[in-house]
Design a protein that fits this description.
six-stranded mixed beta sheet; 11 strands; 30% strand; elongated; binds adenosine-5'-diphosphate; binds 1-O-pyrophosphono-5-O-phosphono-alpha-D-ribofuranose; binds magnesium ion
Length: 210
Amino acid sequence: MTLALSKGRILEDTLPMLSAAGVTPEEDPLTSRKLVFATNDPGLRLLVIRASDVPTFVAYGAADVGVAGKDVLVEHGGRDLYEPLDLGIARCRMMVAGLPGALDGPASRPLRVATKYVETARAHFARVGRQVEIIKLYGSMELAPIVGLADVIVDLVDTGNTLRANGLEAFTEIDTISSRLVVNKASMKMKHAAIQRLLATFATATGGGD
Ligand code: ADP
Ligand code: PRP
Ligand code: MG
């Protein structure tokens, strides 16, 4: 059984859950340069990969199970994965934000939206019937309105510190975000018992199951 973990802040929240479940990696994934970790359970190994790549590894069966943010799952599409458990970690909100008044926008052209969440932004503005031009970025979205690259951004907000530090305000909540367990569809059939055991372990660690 292969479990794909998102590196970064999700990993920091996932490792204590694994530890509580009695799973010990051969080395500390927070400090090691390894990408594959054997564990004290001979039937379980861990992969540590970019958060946005987890759905791809699981969808193709390179991992049976993964931990991924809902933001990443929405962008991926998710139809080729099962999503059986909300782990309740790495909670934040997907929001539209910008300089005060920016959502009123210029009437002369479509609203410019900078984001790494292109599909999420497209779906949101389609839902509210607003014409937009989407500018794909890979990080530091908060910079875009300040330098006139975009009118608004679509990005994650947790404490609001990053928005505040850059003079931006949040306008609209698009979604609430947390990390989920995702399961490869074939693995769910072929390795049913082992996956149910892993799910039960995580459910106990989240306080959400028996
Ligand atoms: P990345 O380099 O992809 O931004 P992160 O570790 O910052 O990696 O984010 C991984 C996941 O953690 C995101 O997909 C999201 O689900 C969640 N996340 C991101 N930023 C925050 C935040 N500020 N607070 C809580 N959760 C967050
Ligand atoms: C995330 C997100 C926001 C910030 C929100 O960035 O893209 O910029 O956190 O959190 P806050 O509301 O608590 O300030 P992150 O720190 O992950 O930076 P990066 O993804 O651009 O590396
Ligand atoms: Mg980040």
